[in-house]
Fold these 3 entries.
Entry 1:
Amino acid sequence: MDFAYDEKTEDYRKRLLAFMDEYVYPAEEGFDEAYRGDWSPPPVIAELQARAKLAGLWNLFLPGEHGAGLTNLQYAPLAELTGRSPWIAPPALNCAAPDTGNMEVLAEFGSPEQRERWLRPLLDGTVRSAFAMTEPQVASSDATNIGTRIVREGDEYVITGRKFYISGAMNPQCRIFIVMGKTDPDAARHVQQSMILVPRDTPGLTVRRGMTVFGYDDGDHGGHAEMVFDGVRVPAANLIGEEGSGFAISQARLGPGRIHHCMRLLGMAERALELMCRRSLARTPFGKPLAEQGVVQEWIAESRVRIEQARLLVLKAAWLMDTVGNKGAHTEIQAIKIIVPSTAEWIIDKAIQAHGAAGVGQDTPLARLWSAARTLRLADGPDEVHKRSLARRELHRYRQA
Ligand SMILES: Cc1cc2nc3c(=O)[nH]c(=O)nc-3n(C[C@H](O)[C@H](O)[C@H](O)COP(=O)(O)OP(=O)(O)OC[C@H]3O[C@@H](n4cnc5c(N)ncnc54)[C@H](O)[C@@H]3O)c2cc1C
């Protein structure tokens, strides 16, 4: 077993480390103040995108002909680095959710026309996209509950329903939605759903309001919208794949999406640990630096051990995705989605504690990092849903026996 990065990864890592130092961390200064309150990213993101393209640090997430051609194992340490500045680095490199998952869907399941119309501008970074599945009226962690209807009428589909917490949808640059709904509520449970492309300017579609996350509106990266689809008509050719394939496509989409979140969470945890160490060396209550208090040393040691454990599991899941495919990596992807957000949340919480009041304020990224990590114990499937599914698969082996 070789734990070293290969030559290609090492080359990308060096260039990305330099990019982070030269452009990303400096852009953090004044980033919040530069946000214009219009739900679109501060202008510096477009500047960094141009620089990232020139530096060859573009679309790193996407394997195959459409992206940089990196394997998941090669991408993992790069995504981790971007997680150190999660509101700037991922969009700067065109590697931010939810666009990444949407590009993967279009690359894998889109028709040539859909790829030409929507994948191309998304890969260029000239438009943004959103993925609309969750609904306020039903327990959406169970996708079979989804109530939005997609009804065929002649050459069109008519979409009616309500969605919320649709990330990125408040951003005016978000021009296209991938919407999950039911084409046949009477079919078998997992073939009732379909996915369809809905351009933002389609009549009947209303982006109603931004939903908050622990009081943050996340406006600088497009917010999380509540949306209403009231008899929205799109051409039948906007359906992705076949009628009834929505559930299967969402499973395929969520695998890479989940591991990418976990890769970035490792970077968030590393950033928090670094801040905790620096602060505890600099702050001296009761006559000695915090760093010399046993309780703080325990937080620091525990954090390092937890990060290393989590990273090994993420890398194993990435390696499995590369070698046996996303399906073969199912258990490990679920395992990391269970453990990595809560690991990052724990470490960020300790870093907040070590900072005192400053930890919950606007002068460090910690409060917002915590909110992001906590949120990821819900988004892309709550912890309990992944645990339920993992336990069932584990039990299944013994039931069979
Ligand atoms: C910041 C943020 C961004 C998001 N972005 C998007 C997006 O872009 N697109 C989108 O479609 N959705 C998005 N979501 C929604 C997210 O995917 C859903 O919130 C999630 O799938 C859970 O669905 P729900 O909120 O309906 O919870 P419910 O399904 O109502 O579940 C509520 C709780 O019940 C518990 N639970 C559920 N099943 C079980 C079980 N079997 N055993 C024990 N307990 C259980 C869990 O603790 C769960 O949190 C986002 C959410 C957040 C917070």
Entry 2:
Amino acid sequence: MSTLLKVNNLIKHFPVTKGFFQKQVGAVKSVDGISFEIEEGETLGIVGESGCGKSTTGRALLRILEPTEGEVLFDGVDIAKLPKKELRAFRTNMQMIFQDPYASLNPRWTVQQVLEEPLITHGNLTKTEVKQRVTELMELVGLSPQQASRYPHEFSGGQRQRIGIARALALNPKFIVCDEPVSALDVSIQAQVLNLMKDLQQKFSLTYLFISHDLSVVKFISDRVGVMYLGKLVELSPTKSIFAEPLHPYTKALMSAVPIPDPEIKREQIVLSGDVPSALHPPAGCAFHTRCPVAMDICKTLVPKWSEVSGGRKVACHLYEQNHTKEEQGSCH
Ligand SMILES: Nc1ncnc2c1ncn2[C@@H]1O[C@H](COP(=O)(O)OP(=O)(O)OP(=O)(O)O)[C@@H](O)[C@H]1O
Ligand SMILES: [Mg+2]
């Protein structure tokens, strides 16, 4: 397998301005220096509480939001620095599936028009070829091509998400950011849509960044899982090992809230006190130290670095650092 996406020190800060002259007085550090790679055909799940920067990461990767700093290498091309014109053409490789497809589908367009739009804008297909492709896309996502003449509101939530997926697939992308794609759906429908996404991934060797706050969904779909806290990645591990043995205290707390089907297994529930601190003034040192049940003195001042743990696992926590010296200060990206 080869690496499709390599993200180096991605930062997205939203400036906070004040007064008539819009003087910058601070910045919301939504994504604060994260690095990771995604292999071709892989699904990397991203989890974390609300407001920790999951969506901002996905959007900055695709340059729906302009990154403040950092590299996003896609097949070796740095998307973060591509001029606008080249980016437009390059975008066909990368798509996004949203939580609420209804909000992202123009209600005055029929499904036919929704699916035709990217084909007409980016492709050089004849009218007949466009029609054929729409038929193909409808079939791919399990809808009948005859339904293409209907409007989005005439479909159920699950069907609308299928339309969202069909639109994302229209231009044969390699990489799709899926931002909470099943969170708005009934549990019974979630499984169907997730299975469809898995089938399509196999069929077209798609690579997914799959954002969700639902750990069972992430467990089902992901090969590896990244855990975010206040704009930083705190752990990145293969799915099996992160669920079997979470390393970071934050991951442990998140996992402890997931019910285990086996009543024989007892797991201590770790309740995190308080909310996620503001991304405008994140705590110094390890941003999690204010809520961490095992915080040490060092955590209040020194940002933990990535520690590589066996089995392809990475964690940014002082508990796992062998020898930390002042000279080794660095950010955990
Ligand atoms: N356009 C913006 N301007 C200023 N701050 C923003 C903007 N968009 C997001 N933020 C802030 O960035 C932080 C991260 O937001 P983001 O939406 O990425 O979180 P998330 O992990 O996707 O949360 P959720 O699970 O609720 O979707 C939050 O503090 C949010 O308020
Ligand atoms: Mg979000």
Entry 3:
Amino acid sequence: MLNNKTILITGGTGSFGNHFVEYVLKNYKPKKVIIYSRDEYKQFIMAEKFKDYKSILRFFIGDVRDKERFERALNGVDYVIHAAAMKQVPTCEYNPIEAVKTNINGAMNIIDGVLNTQSVKKVVALSTDKAVNPINLYGGTKLVSDKLFTAANAYVGDRDLSFSVVRYGNVAGSRGSVIPFFKNIVDNGVTELPITDFRMTRFWIDLNQGVELVIKALKEAKGGETFISKIPSFKITDLAQAMLPDCKLKEVGIREGEKLHEIMITKEDSMTTYEYEKHYIIYPQYSWWDNNKIIEGGKRVEAEFEYMSGNNHEWISIQQLKERLINI
Ligand SMILES: NC(=O)c1ccc[n+]([C@@H]2O[C@H](COP(=O)([O-])OP(=O)(O)OC[C@H]3O[C@@H](n4cnc5c(N)ncnc54)[C@H](OP(=O)(O)O)[C@@H]3O)[C@@H](O)[C@H]2O)c1
């Protein structure tokens, strides 16, 4: 479905963007892929990396805070993936207005820009577990962004256009996450690893699974869905043992803005959540939303269902973690 289509990705030079572009170029024959981001150096590096695809890739310098510029980039675009964000929790806490401008005003500009242009058929915005019951500003801004994209479907009228959201948790090995943190101290020869809380759990998702979920959303979305992958969980203490076998563990206390478990679907969301073979979809709870848009093949989850890394059915053992870490 991406063959001969023009795709624009905001934040296309980031970790997700790089992997998405690689995946799309390998598996489809798009007409054009437009990378929309601010830093020319990151675009230069990416252009070098994908130099064999010069005729397909376009590097557009632009800020999601700048609606006019974004609208200019939208000319002839079929699909928009919105990945640009400020996403470091401490940075967002210290620079709250900047986080609001990028994550909330930016989302508004994407929606308005798309509504003001005729060509776009689908918009998929990336979300995070931190948007669920948020306890920090990053999560708060992403919750607002999710709500904006879901509500945007009320404004499409008769147009063949949908807005949907894809939500996942920390990508294994991503910058600032626990794997590179442990790796760095293990490489320095320690025998003890710090654990903020021994009860802590996380979901395991890799970039490929994130990209595949976005492609699925592009293919299936009718508008208003929040797509969530079914993925296994692991204990942070097991991860430490996998990275440094027989190491001592020291509990150092939970950090500001950190949660014990990642949560993707709350009990309140469960009222409109459907389970599919490999994913869940949360549907909107708005009165204007049309139930005929529920995608076939799913079944409603039980009342009070909650999808959280701490109460998952599928877990990764220490041995399985060791095997997965080889590819990180
Ligand atoms: N990484 C994870 O573990 C994870 C987990 C769950 C959800 N997510 C979500 O996935 C999305 C992508 O994350 P990522 O890991 O790829 O992030 P990333 O590696 O930090 O990349 C962010 C991208 O956004 C661009 N950007 C930042 N501010 C911008 C602005 N104002 N206007 C235009 N572009 C801007 C950056 O390029 P410039 O600086 O050059 O503009 C960069 O290309 C985000 O929405 C994030 O919330 C990520």
